[in-house]
Amino acid sequence: MTTGSDDTSILPPEGFVRSSSRGPYSMHNGPYFHREIQGEATEHAFLALPRHANGLGLVHGGMLTSFMDGLLAAAVWRASHRSSVTIHLSVDFLHMARVGQWVFGESRVTRLTRDVAFVEGRAHAVGADVVRASGVFKLMRKPAE
To answer: DSSP state, 140?
Structure first.
């Protein structure tokens, strides 16, 4: 739900707060929100705005892919406390999300080595899985600050 037309007036679902520690690309495409669940786990979300849509009024696959890439990278950060870059990203589109719907996502690391993390996640809207993704991320040498 929103209280106006600009991004600052978006009221997130209960327990969610606006994410502020993302890079310029994600900050431009958002806004994104998150909430802590079960210890180290985090759930991310965004409200599908008209600018996130394709010509049919559905959330654009590029928006969903960007969301999933950030969602998986967040799981890597939680598990390793190191920045990472995407080596491989596989995305399966399962259902549609529409403008005005909240899209929620969860992710988890399935394997963590000294240099690489393997991650999987899913996003859903209105009770239906919209997209699932898996990725491989290169851990950066220097821990993130």
So the answer is: P
| pTM to 2 decimal places | 0.88
Q: Give the whole-angstrom CA distance, residue 15 versus residue 34.
A: 8
Which range in 23-27, 91-95, 139-143 is most confidently predicted, on average pLDDT?
Answer: 91-95
CA 123 vs CA 73, 127, 133: distances in Å: 14, 10, 9
Residues 6+ apart with CB under 8 A from 107: 68, 71, 72, 74, 75, 119, 120, 121, 122, 133
- Write out the two tokens for 64: 């969903």
High-pLDDT (> 70) share of the chain, %: 89
Here the tokens at position 76 are 């890597």
Which domains are assigned to the chain?
Answer: 16-139 (3.10.129.10)
Closest CA to 119 of 145, 94, 102, 138: 138
What is the distance between the alpha carbons of residues 76 and 137, in angstroms, rounded to a whole number?
8
Residue scoring higher pLDDT (34 or 52): 52
